[in-house]
Amino acid sequence: MAVFTRKRLLSAVAVAVASVALLAGCSNDPLAEQYREGSNKNYISGTGVVKEIALENRGEAIAFEAKDFAGETVSSEDFRGEVLVVNFWYASCAPCRAEAPTLEAVNKQFAGQGASLLGVNVRDQVDTARAFEETYGVTYSSVADINDGSMQQAFGNEVPPNAVPTTLVLDQEGRVAARILGQIKDESILRTLVRDTIAEAE
């Protein structure tokens, strides 16, 4: 297990600061603004720490099956052979709102390029979740995990209780290759994690 390298994190700090400033300037979302101001109201979240897992230290492939908000079955087998980014979220989570544009940007960049995104909603009913997706322009699918928590169970200790958002990068075999615990603070970090994991197959 290796923490995201100091050199790469330092190189992203300036971009992260600029990105947060830009989002703060264009947002009219009170919860997202509240989060960016550091008031820590209404949610419990991780700190955004990034963990990469070396090939030889990765566990078993994650197996899951759940229904998306259109009622269609989505399973881990649908994504075998490509990198999968899995993001755990819910609509009233301030950091989830703050990172939504980042996730959608990465989704668009890697669509058809060896990676997909999948959201896992841990709290909301269909109408609330769809309203969030429309508000933030989210085009990738999410599955509902509000009844039996099967998705959280499938990922075991990789998604600690109350640590929402959490974003996982799964390799082409379905194993967890990286984790971001808390809001994705810098788009370039997630881009790099996805790009590096795609490159492993090459």
UniProtKB/TrEMBL annotation:
* GO process annotations (BP): cytochrome complex assembly
Residue span, Thioredoxin domain:
55-199
Q: Where is it found, in Gene Ontology cellular component terms?
A: cell envelope
Q: Which Pfam families match?
A: AhpC-TSA (PF00578)
**Where does it live in the cell?**
Cell envelope
- Superkingdom is Bacteria
Q: Tell me the Gene3D superfamilies matching this sequence.
A: Glutaredoxin
Q: Which keywords does the record carry?
A: Cytochrome c-type biogenesis, Disulfide bond, Redox-active center, Signal, Signal-anchor, Transmembrane
Q: What GO terms are given for molecular function?
A: antioxidant activity; oxidoreductase activity
Leader sequence range is 1-24
Question: Record's PANTHER family?
Answer: THIOL:DISULFIDE INTERCHANGE PROTEIN DSBE
Put simply, this protein is called Alkyl hydroperoxide reductase
Species of provenance: Microterricola viridarii
Instruction: Name the lineage.
Output: Bacteria, Bacillati, Actinomycetota, Actinomycetes, Micrococcales
